[in-house]
Amino acid sequence: MTVLTKQLHSDRQAPPRHPWKHLATRWIKKQLFPTPFQSCLSLTTLVLLLWFIPFALDWLLFSATFVGDSKADCVGDGACWLPVTQRIELFVYGFYPDTEIWRVNIAFGLAASILPVLYLKQVDRRWVLGYLIVLPFLMWWLLKGGAGLSEVSSTKFAGILVTIFLGVIGMLFALPIGILLALGRRSKKPAIKLLSVLYIELVRSVPVITLLFMASLMIQLFFPEGMTIDIFLRVLIVLIMFTAAYMAETIRGGLQGISSGQFEAAEALGFSYWKTMGLIILPQVLRNTIPPLLTQFIGLFKETTLVVVVGVLDVVGIAMSTTSAPEWLGLEHEVYLFLALFFFIICFTLSHYARHLEKQMEKSRL
Question: Where's the ABC transmembrane type-1 domain (predicted)?
Answer without folding.
Answer: 160-354
